[in-house]
Design brief:
The complex is a heterodimer of chains A (352) and B (611). Chain A has 352 residues and is an alpha/beta fold. Chain A contains twelve helices and 13 strands. Chain A has one domain: Thiamin diphosphate (ThDP)-binding fold, Pyr/PP domains (Rossmann fold). The longest helix of chain A has 15 residues. Chain B has 611 residues and is of the alpha/beta class. In chain B, the strands form five sheets. In chain B, strands 10, 11, 12, 13, 14, 15, 16 and 22 form an eight-stranded mixed sheet that branches. The chains are: A alpha/beta (352), B alpha/beta (611). β2 of chain A pairs parallel with β18 of chain B.
Chain lengths: 352, 611
């Protein structure tokens, strides 16, 4: 799925321009208006980095969101791309329609825990069920930021608001739910772990289907206090990375530099590779039951399990099932759009 | 039992034949397979060259509840609902007593012998038929017997009315196309009914059909099917919908057509994409996503769906994204009468969504206009970059209408103001919401356009002409005033009203949508009462100038519509307050299609009261 590029990669590490000759700045957006230190800005930076490093044409990207602090962020990256800030909880439907019209677009959706786990839970579920190819990032902070700090549906039992109010209702685990719904790429990350995050975004881009990234992204203003289970401090303490991730795009040489048995290599549809270097835990992300069990265990242990929780590349994508012509429907010519007079004549004859 | 009868001898003495001018009312149980028999009956008369219309009155249920099918046969071509039933075929024991009580004296009743309906009314001409026995002759299969009873009554009615058996056979063949066994069975059963009637019934009623030449080349179609054909010829590529009566058959028929006519010739792959959405919110969200991304997109729904689409409708209006939304109206509020017809969504759809929102509405009256306005709606949506609504209704959408064949479009698709990569290279950039041409309609680019300046940001929040977030008062004013200007310009683009100005008329009638068919008949009825009328048929909102001109030119104008509160009347009063005194209202809202007698009586009554 990664764009073919012609210009050679500049030698050496950290090139100033990517294969398209574009600088990192070409992938940036308007300055963020979120609070200083907001987790969302850290995620924005990794989105910019991933798209730039993979040399994806910005004009081939559509970025979409719903409503909330997280949903403001598409304005802060990829200013050359078309953006769509939709209505609350309804980004998945807009993304589905946009994809139907132009299945060549890379789509990145940014949502929050309010936007996804409450008002948008239905559309979130059906997007996954349809397996519409896109990256769906949930910037998860457990509170409604833009309306000043009410609990969201992902707030953990026992987590407190700033004023001491305790949440007693069960948290919705979007990763667990996504696995249940048949999502083929389910990952959890933390805004404070940029290395892991950027690798996951890149792998998600190579996935043919809906890729969910549930990223714990602390709200510095309303949910970063003692008692919050989604603060920087707490997340850092309980973060348990499943593996060390490395993403090798299809156009790069694969080198063997690891001890046998220490690394699991996942080959993506486009020929890219995702390398999972084991960290203590023996975890196989292609085992759906194990993934489910691990998520439940982490709830019990009060830990934050991050990394690629589950991957299944076998479920056919929405695009595949749609059986569409290769070119985007949006580029059909009038002759391709309007059937000829003979078609109408035939229909009319059948009605006389 | 006492009846409402005229003297029964009236009936027998009335030897005058009534040819090609009556209505047949078939009462059955839904799910019993009567739909195909009724279609056969309708088509066989149509094939004899006689104008017909068919209306299905059905419950919100799959099996076991009463349903009625009315066929109006009319040599003068009146195809509105006829209030009076001339011939009742009372096949449903649940409703038979009520059905027969509603008949006027002198009407005809065909019924199964077991129902004993002849004991209830003696001022009605009864034809009592042993349907059970006849069904035994037609088949040994218990399940089939039940189904075949329906085609047996077709045979009986055909004999009574003198419908050509050849036409019955032909209609059966058409109905069961390709299923030789079913054709055989049905033809045989119809013949059994016919022959029994010939041998056992004495014709004692005035109703007959006689071959005419008035339907040659005509088609029979429902409005949803017509709209579907229009959508396909408009080049729709993305269809997103959620099932709801009475709109489902629009998208279902459209999908069938697309599967046939919109496949790539070389690869057989689709040049369209369809999603049955999880709800109407998602359906319209997808339609807007696709409209933004450069496809002609649509959804179809009914009242409850329109309510759910409200937020996105305002979003589409404010962010200026084209899409087409069909509202096949049914009776509200709430679930209302889901299988009955209404024009009750006019007001709510016109202003659908919060804030200052006003939409463009097209109001087709005929199956032909369902077809034409479907194409028009896509052109308007892309020209104006806004959601365009087409308001049909259950009567128009789901009932069978006779029409001239549809004409292939002669004008190319109007894709509106879209800038390509080459345009951007010349221009060096663009401002998404800047009114360059002064018509309120701005330029857009599509996602995927290979130019660094092509991208822009769609947002439902305040934005300036560069599509950047803005809460500045002057930016908001510029945007809202431009949207108003754009909407004003819609008046030049929407279908103009059809006005028949009668120089002798002091009064005018103003109507829209499916009400049209009753008005045609009403005007003739009023003419017989020496009350000549003019007629203005509104075909779209916003109103064009010719509408106040029409009202101005008459002493009174009767606004006829199918809702309780007079929604069209209110819109006229709101936009033309100085003409309020001239406006009178006739409102029909019991769920049945409006009939001419109702309108005529109400106009005459108001005329009498005014004197």
């Amino acid at each position: 799925m990664v764009q073919e590029v012609t210009s050679p990669s500049p030698a050496g590490k950290a090139p100033q321009t990517n294969k398209l000759g574009l600088t990192l700045a070409d992938y940036k957006g308007s300055p963020s208006t979120l609070c200083d230190g907001c987790g969302h800005d850290a995620i924005t930076s990794q989105i910019i980095k991933a798209f730039w490093e993979l040399s994806i044409e910005p004009h081939q990207v559509a970025k979409l969101s719903g409503i909330g602090c997280s949903s403001k962020t598409p304005a802060y990256f990829l200013s050359r791309s078309h953006g769509f800030n939709s209505v609350h909880g309804r980004m998945p439907s807009v993304a589905t329609g946009a994809h139907m019209a132009n299945h060549k677009l890379y789509m990145v959706g940014v949502s929050g825990d309010g936007d996804t786990a409450s008002i948008g839970l239905g559309q979130f579920g059906h997007l996954i069920r349809r397996n519409v190819p896109m990256i769906y990032i949930v910037e998860n902070n457990g509170v409604y930021g833009l309306t000043k700090g009410q609990f969201s549906a992902t707030a953990d039992v026992g987590s407190t608001l700033k004023d001491g109010t305790v949440n007693r209702q069960t948290a919705i685990d979007l990763c667990g739910l996504a696995i249940e719904l048949g999502c083929g790429f389910v990952a959890r990350s933390f805004a404070g772990d940029p290395k892991q995050l950027v690798a996951l975004i890149k792998a998600a881009l190579a996935h043919e289907g809906t890729a969910l990234l549930d990223v714990i992204s602390p709200c510095v203003t309303f949910n970063n206090h003692e008692g919050s289970t989604k603060s920087y401090k707490h997340a850092k303490e309980v973060d348990r990375p499943l593996h060390e991730l490395g993403f090798i795009p299809f156009y790069e040489q694969i080198t063997v530099d690891y001890e046998p048995g220490t690394v699991q290599d996942v080959e993506m549809h486009d020929g890219s590779h995702l390398r999972l270097k084991k960290l203590g835990l023996d975890y196989n992300p292609t085992d759906r039951f194990a993934a489910d069990r691990a998520i439940h265990q982490s709830h019990k242990d009060g830990t934050l399990l991050t990394g690629l929780l589950y991957i299944d590349q076998e479920t056919p994508s929405f695009t595949k099932l749609a059986n569409l012509v290769d070119k985007p429907l949006s580029s059909l010519t009038p002759n391709e759009l309007r059937p000829p007079k003979e078609a109408l004549d035939e229909i009319m004859a059948s009605l006389t | 039992m006492k009846t409402l009868a005229r003297d029964s001898k009236d009936m027998t003495e009335d030897k005058k034949l009534i040819v090609n001018d009556f209505s047949i009312h078939v009462a059955t149980v839904n799910g019993s397979g009567s739909q195909s028999s009724n279609t056969v009956l309708l088509r066989s008369i149509f094939q004899m060259g006689i104008p017909v219309s068919g209306k299905n009155l059905f419950p919100s249920n799959i099996m076991g509840l009463p349903t009625w099918f009315t066929i109006r046969v009319n040599k003068d071509g009146y195809i509105a609902r006829k209030k009076e039933v001339d011939i009742l075929v009372a096949m449903n024991p649940q409703t038979a007593v009520e059905d027969i009580k509603d008949l006027r004296p002198g009407a005809v009743c065909v019924s199964p012998v077991e129902l004993n309906l002849d004991k209830i009314r003696d001022d009605v001409k009864h034809y009592v038929v042993p349907f059970g026995e006849l069904a035994n002759k037609a088949s040994d299969n218990v399940k089939l017997k039940k189904l075949l009873t329906n085609i047996i009554y077709v045979g009986v009615v055909a004999e009574l009315l003198d419908i050509d058996q050849k036409e019955i056979d032909k209609a059966i063949e058409r109905q069961f196309e390709g299923k030789a066994k079913a054709i055989d069975l049905n033809v045989r059963a119809a013949t059994i009914g016919r022959e029994w009637a010939r041998e056992n019934l004495k014709k004692e009623d005035p109703y007959r059909v006689e071959r005419l030449d008035l339907t040659k080349g005509k088609i029979i179609i429902d409005g949803n099917g017509a709209a579907a054909i229009g959508c396909m010829l408009a080049g729709v590529s993305v269809v997103t919908w959620y099932p709801i009566t009475p709109s489902s058959s629009l998208c279902e028929q459209l999908i069938d057509y697309l599967e046939k006519y919109r496949l790539d010739k070389e690869t057989g792959k689709r040049t369209f994409s369809v999603v049955q959405a999880e709800d109407e919110l998602a359906a319209v969200g997808m339609a807007l996503g696709a409209g933004w991304s450069g496809c002609r997109s649509m959804t179809s729904t009914s009242g409850p769906g329109i309510s759910l689409m409200s937020e996105f409708a305002g979003f589409g209006y404010f962010t200026e994204i084209p899409t087409v939304i069909f509202d096949v109206q049914r009776v509200g509020p709430s679930t209302g009468l889901p299988t009955r017809t209404s024009q009750g969504d006019l007001m709510s759809t016109y202003f659908l969504s919060h804030g200052d929102t006003k939409h463009v509405l097209l109001l087709p009256s005929s199956v032909e206009e369902c077809y034409e306005f479907a194409m028009k709606a896509f052109d308007l949506a892309e020209r104006m970059q806004t959601p365009v609504f087409v308001l049909s209704d259950l009567d128009l959408g789901m009932n069978q209408w006779m029409s001239d064949p549809f004409v292939y479009p002669t004008t190319p698709l109007d894709r509106g103001k879209v800038l390509s990569k080459e345009d951007l290279e010349k221009l060096g950039g663009f401002a998404r919401y800047k009114d360059v041409d002064g018509d309120g309609m701005t330029y857009r680019t599509l996602p995927g356009t290979a130019h660094p300046k092509a991208g822009y940001f769609v947002r439902g929040s305040g934005h300036n002409e560069n599509a950047a977030y803005s809460e500045r008062p002057e930016d908001y004013l510029y945007l809202m005033d431009r949207l108003k200007r754009k909407w004003e310009n819609a008046k030049k683009l929407v279908p103009a009203p059809v006005i028949d100005h009668n120089k002798d008329a002091k009064i005018g009638i103003l109507a829209f949508g499916s009400t049209h068919w009753a008005i045609l008949e009403t005007r003739d009825q009023l003419m017989k009462e020496k009350l000549p009328t003019s007629y203005c048929r509104v075909r779209a909102l916003p109103f064009t100038q010719s509408i106040p001109d029409f009202i101005e030119a008459h002493e009174q104008v009767y606004v006829v519509e199918q809702n309780r509160d007079g929604q069209m009347l209110d819109l006229l009063r709101m936009e033309f307050p100085h003409l309020t005194a001239k406006l009178r209202s006739v409102r029909h809202y019991n769920g049945l299609p409006v009939d001419a007698d109702f309108v005529t009586e109400h106009i005459l009554e108001q005329e009498r009261n005014a004197r």
